[in-house]
Design brief:
Penicillin V Acylase, Chain A; 7-stranded mixed beta sheet; 12 helices; 17 strands; globular
């Protein structure tokens, strides 16, 4: 009973904090006056095998020896996937989790001292008052009944193999519920693009450049374990099993933008529900169509204010979704919102720049998308949409979904030369069909330590 009372008190404090949000404007204003095209050539990605273990393979792909991204293939049950994952990336997972803990502590301290950052002051104050572990455990308790057990099974497998605390892994997956990222997305099809038989989808993650995330990027390929699952690509970090960026073998893509500047159509927020990083992964893992994905979001126990997106390469359509506890409205190019002169409708295009109420970025990304309307390609978006909008500092991808092509870039890790922001760096092109076709390792392939 005492624990329940404590959790109830924590919830009241957190719930109050989650509803203190600004109602107009946009964090950051807009792109800088020196925004320029990205003229780097696209690099053809040829993943190189590094290691094989039971239920897992580790490859690398990248621009240079110092600038590699792990590509991890996982097979089997949730626990088996987690154990293989922890075996392959144990050191990276430990550094990522430790780095996230240190980053949250720093952000809480800065927010309390008046610095504006990704953690709102009221939530930072709550974490400081009760302690980080208690606060994140409380949030986990609020969400546990809405979260698939396979997430916890995978976390246990990763912990057993890597030695990283399962509690810490679980806690860091709550950070998406307490922070607000600036991100962008678009989906373009039909009359908007050069290949009328495909669809382009873009997701830019603009978030924490001073934290540990830029140092531990990872592409994880989860191979289906039975006919009810999909094989899917997760673009995130080592030790991270939630989804904020990804595509699956059903040609679906997911997209997410944190909303710091909503209007009054959003309603309230809550901590009781499924964390959005888990519901987005459920789309990738289980859904076969855009309609199924949108229905999953509509029927979910939703939490915080977001803009989500789902692209469908088979249907060649894209939905933007206004998402929150009290709202889940799907939009296309005909009913795009918010309705404003700085957020014009574009035929066969759905887009959002950095937030819900964000004139400075919406004006620029809409201008760039209209500039190439009818001829837009992934290469033109890489060259002249994301870099001129200055969106995608931590990572960014554009997928030619119907043709199974995936282009991505990531921020420069510490010590790596060149531009710091992903949108200014060379992109790597991956063939999705080749990734889906990678077979599980046989005993003869296992790497001997």
């Amino acid at each position: 009973m005492k624990v329940l009372c404590v959790l109830a008190v924590l919830f009241v404090a957190a719930h109050a904090a989650k509803n203190i949000l600004p109602s107009a404007g946009c964090n950051g204003g807009g792109p800088g006056p020196d925004a320029h095209q990205n003229l780097n050539p696209v690099v053809i990605g040829n993943p190189v095998l590094v290691k094989s273990v039971p239920n897992g393979k580790l490859y690398t792909v990248g621009l240079s020896t110092a600038d590699q991204v792990p590509v991890v293939h996982l097979y089997g049950t949730a626990y088996q996937k987690g154990f293989a994952h922890g075996t392959l990336i144990k050191d990276k997972a430990q550094k990522l989790v430790d780095g996230v803990y240190k980053w949250i502590e720093d952000q809480v301290s800065e927010a309390i001292n008046g610095t504006i950052g990704p953690i709102p002051y009221e939530i930072a104050k709550w974490i400081a008052d009760v302690g980080m572990d208690v606060a994140l455990d409380a949030m986990s308790a609020f969400t546990q009944n809405y979260t698939g057990k396979y997430f916890f099974e995978q976390i246990k497998g990763m912990s057993d193999a890597s030695g990283v605390s399962a509690d810490k892994i679980r806690r860091v997956h709550m950070m998406g519920e307490i922070t607000k990222g600036r991100c962008s997305m678009f989906g373009a099809w039909g009359k908007a693009i050069q290949d009328k038989n495909s669809i382009l989808s873009m997701r830019a993650l603009d978030w924490v450049m001073d934290g540990p995330f830029k140092n531990w990027p990872e592409i994880t390929i989860y191979h289906a374990n039975g006919p009810n699952e999909n094989t899917f690509l997760n673009l995130g970090w080592s030790g991270w099993i939630g989804s904020i960026t990804g595509v699956n073998d059903q040609q679906l893509s997911i997209h997410e933008i944190g909303v710091s500047y909503p209007d009054d159509t959003f309603g309230k927020e809550t901590f009781f529900g499924i964390p959005f990083v888990y519901v987005l992964r459920d789309i990738l893992q289980f859904d076969k169509s855009r309609a199924a994905a949108v229905n999953r979001l509509k029927t979910a126990n939703r939490t915080c204010h977001l803009i989500l997106g789902v692209g469908d390469g088979k249907e060649r359509r894209f939905s933007g979704i206004q998402y929150g506890k009290d709202v889940c409205d799907a939009m296309d190019d005909t009913n795009l919102r918010p309705v404003a002169d700085w957020h014009p409708k574009i035929e066969n295009v759905v887009y959002f720049g950095m937030d819900w109420m964000c004139p400075g970025f919406d004006r620029v990304i809409s201008k760039q998308l209209m500039k190439y309307h009818g001829n837009l390609t992934a290469e033109l978006a890489i060259k002249d949409v994301m870099p001129v909008t200055e969106t995608g500092d931590l990572h960014v991808y554009v997928a030619d979904l119907s043709n199974n092509q995936f282009y991505f870039a990531w921020a420069a890790p510490e010590g790596v030369p060149g531009p710091p922001n992903a949108f200014d760096r060379p992109y790597v092109k991956l063939d999705l069909k080749s990734l889906w076709a990678v077979k599980a390792p046989t005993p003869e392939e296992f790497t001997v330590e």
